[in-house]
Specification:
elongated, 106 residues, single chain, alpha+beta
Amino acid sequence: MVPFHINPGGKFGLPKTTYSMTLQLFDQDRTYSNRYFITSLNYSWYETENKYHSFTPIVLEYRDGRLDSNFRKNLEQEGYQLYVRSNDRQYFGLGTQYTFILNGKS
């Protein structure tokens, strides 16, 4: 199931479509909570016995991290501003990935 043509034959392995979804919920009392969601769609296939392709046309990420206000104040007073900025925020990411692996013949 791909939106482009690849050789469907199974001579070097069957082409594969993978849909993945991950949800992570994390709560640490009086410090930090995190909601993290990732979903992706991947196509992978062997062109020949030593040429492998993996194409992920879409990766969506959403993260909602929240620091407890007292914990955040303590971190800022101790000089951890980068940690606070990195973890006390919402984030949305959109990406794509392509991997090509060429192995030597055995």
